[in-house]
Amino acid sequence: MRVGIVNDLRMATEALRRIIESSDGLEVAWTAVDGQDAVAKTVGDRPDLILMDLVMPNMDGAEATSVIMATHPCPILVVTATIEGNSRRVVKALAGGAVDAVETPTMGLDGTIRGDGPLLERIARLQRDPEGFKKSSDSPLEEFAVAPPSSEAVATSKARPSVLLLGASTGGPQSIRTVLSALPAPFSLPIVIVQHIDHRFVPGLTNWLGEATGHHVVGSTPGPMRPGEVVVAASESHLILTKDGYDHRREPAESIHRPSVDELFLSAAGCDFKGIAVLLTGMGTDGAEGMTALRAAGWHTIAQDEDSSAVWGMPAAAIRAGGAMEILSIDEIGDRVASRLGIVGAE
Q: Which of 8, 116, 129, 196 is catalytic?
């Protein structure tokens, strides 16, 4: 795996260089001193992964992430000096397409590297992902497109939906914001979200979503579901649904993603209630198995389309598996959800 390093501090760049060069299967592709430099170097030599600092002159890391993902997409891992101090910038970078964020390792005067474990773990997770990083699947969309709206897709379900589930990864915060902004606040159903993100960034994400959409957005805690409340998975454990509401579960411990969209969806498929499930932009396949189970259990399932996805991995996997009843652009999904509930003015 060839890695680009973007940081305006020589000490931080050197620490990251040493970590990459001392790790099996990794090599430094290039280094850049700011966002503008990173954009230019990505055009000429797109690496397998970019380690992106946030606070830099000329162009910061969040803006550089958005530009790279729009023009020459590749996995971008935010590496920042402080999680708490840069939470808003981190959320902006994740909305622009970054896959995750970790704190920058440090190097002592004696050359000793400290704090490299989380960085190497995130990189290993990207290497383990069976789908890798893809703008689209290897096969053309036409092979996986669902049939034109059938009786299943247009019929009103016997039971009114009682919950809305959203799953997302790369580029997810912006897609989630778009869906929530299209729904009236307070919403008539509980809304439950799994976004692939370190649990320490969830407070920044919930604050940003609440301010941007007008919804009441909170981190998850075990307890009952409440209409009008938007709950974001906020634990290192999986967020699941039970007959009593929300719970957190450690197993399966081997999951690539914690929390996992699949675990949320699969738990919901085993409950008596029905609802609407939406799988948004993201790298990999998380959510495909769960969405297929939800569709089989009588839920209405929607996958984001390729053109409006930052990375069309998770939605494409669900479509291939037969889990999606509809494929919609991000600007259509909120209105479609509202119309399923008979909200006046939807669509």
A: 196
Region 55-61 average pLDDT: 95
pLDDT, tens only, 191-223: 999 999 888 889 989 999 999 999 999 999 999
* 189 assigned to some structural domain: yes
My answer on whether 20 and 169 are in the same domain is no
- In this structure, are 189 and 56 located in the same domain? no
Measured CA to CA, the distance from residue 6 to residue 80 in angstroms comes to: 11
Lowest mean pLDDT among 7-16, 17-26, 115-124: 115-124
Question: Which residue in 66, 87, 169, 220 is the catalytic one?
Answer: 169
Q: Are residues 173 and 294 in the same domain?
A: yes
Same domain, 162 and 285: yes
pLDDT at 22 over 50: yes
Triad 128, 81, 102: Cα angle to 5°: 15
339 is catalytic: no
How many Å apart are CA 76 and CA 68, to the nearest integer? 9
Confidence (pLDDT) at 345: 45
**CATH number assigned to the domain comprising residue 122:** 3.40.50.2300
61 vs 189: CA distance, rounded Å? 36
Angle 288-296/261-269 helices, nearest 10 degrees? 10
pLDDT over 90 percentage in the chain: 68
> Is 215 considered catalytic here?
no
Q: 34 is in which domain, residue-wise?
A: 2-128
169 has catalytic annotation: yes
The distance from CA 49 to its chain's CA centroid, rounded to whole angstroms, is 17
Tokens of 141: 């969309």
How far apart are alpha carbons 276 and 207 in whole angstroms?
24
> Region 82-109: what's the mean pLDDT?
85
Of 286, 305, 308, 309, the catalytic one is 286
